[in-house]
Amino acid sequence: MSTRVSLAALLLTAGACITTSAWGAPFFFTTGNADGQLGALSQSERGGRLETETADDFILTQTTVINGATITGLVLDDSVADITNVEVEIYHLFSQDPNDTVPPSGHVPSRTNSPSDHEIDSATRDSDEGTLLFSYSSLNANFSIAQTVIDGIHPSPNNRTLGEGPASGEEVQITLTFAKPIVLPAGHYFFRPEVLVKSGDFLYLSAPRPLVSPTPINPDLQAWIRNARLAPDWLRIGTDIIDAVGATTPTFNMTFSLGGNTIPEAGIPGDPECHGQTVAAAAKQFGGIKSAAATLGFSSVPALQDSFREFCNP
Predict the structure, then answer these.
(1) What distance in Å separates the CA atoms of residue 291 and residue 308, rounded to the nearest whole number?
(2) N or C terminus: fewer CB in 10 A for the chain?
(3) Is the dihedral of CA 106, 191, 286, 62 positive or negative?
(4) What is the dihedral angle through the alpha carbons of 136, 137, 141, 145, rounded to the nearest 10 degrees?
(5) Any idea of the CA torsion for 150, 152, 153, 156, to the nearest 10 degrees?
(6) pLDDT at 11
(7) DSSP string covering 33-57, please?
(8) Partners of 68 in the beta sheet?
(9) What whole-number distance in Å separates Cα of residue 1 and Cα of residue 133?
(10) Could you give the CA distance from residue 133 to residue 50 in angstroms, rounded to a whole number?
């Protein structure tokens, strides 16, 4: 319980900073706390279990350096102490990535407002590769959820399964630090975490929709899911899987938060002046390039320079 309170206080404080600072504000986004409505599998391949990805959206209004995140999930048939790896990917909205399959395959009911086919390579962070550090805290040893999606992820016309029923397990909050912060321009994105445990499953927990958190977004898109068999397509967890009967369809957000800093005067990716402009903006904003690197979470000035160069040449 104390973890929830401290996180909420941190986010509310950050929200106050955002509203009172006109230049280079800290960035925080949260969907709030888990609501007990859904747990959706989101973990890499293990044994006979296919890789399964669950993603939810967020919006950046200006260039942002993201250096940390939290995710909340349910560990089934295992202990939080057996979490062995965490990976994060970021996706554009479908059709915004030039490599998306357009028109879509037709294997799912819709790709409108889904994640793109492929992740943004420069934004992937993986604890096995040393680009992400994680810690965890148990929130509830016996947390119950009303509905699950684990194996029932099928192409049309067999996509509607009504879910796989209730479950209970240990609710855990995982805190992520990006050893290499993620630099993104303004835009609408999807955040996809995967968590691997030794012998159980990790179910990503839902959050209220519409958002009731201190950082609402508009539009607030519903969560999507896919497994290795369905990829590159995605299904809407509520509309396509749990129920597909129109107005009564349940829809879900997922429980996560993101933190970092904005750089309002950063350059435009692809522009020849982007790198120099972004470095100059960061140095001006934080009182020097060394201070910028430290504040933004980079290990060194060269690491910052490399990430800005990657940002400017997508």
Answers:
(1) 15
(2) N
(3) positive
(4) -70
(5) -170
(6) 34
(7) S--SSEEEE-B--BTTBPPEEEEEE
(8) 177, 259
(9) 23
(10) 24
Quick one: which of 260, 259, 267 has its CA closest to 283? Answer: 267
Encoded tokens for 97: 């990535």
Chain centroid, CA 299 distance in Å: 23
Quick one: angle between helices 274-286 and 289-296, nearest 10? 90
Q: Which of 221, 304, 230, 264 is nearest to 18 (CA)?
A: 264
Residue 19: count other Cβ atoms within 10 Å of its Cβ.
Answer: 8
**What's the token pair of residue 239?**
């509309």
* Other beta carbons less than 10 A from residue 299's beta carbon: 12
The per-residue pLDDT for range 3-14, each reduced to its tens digit, is 333 333 333 333
Instruction: Return the structure tokens found at 144.
Output: 């119950």
Residue 234 pairs with which residues in a beta bridge? none
Question: What DSSP line would sit under 217-282, residue for residue?
Answer: -SS-PPPEEEETTTTT--EEIIIIII--SSTT----EE-EEEEEEE-TT---TT-TTHHHHHHHHH
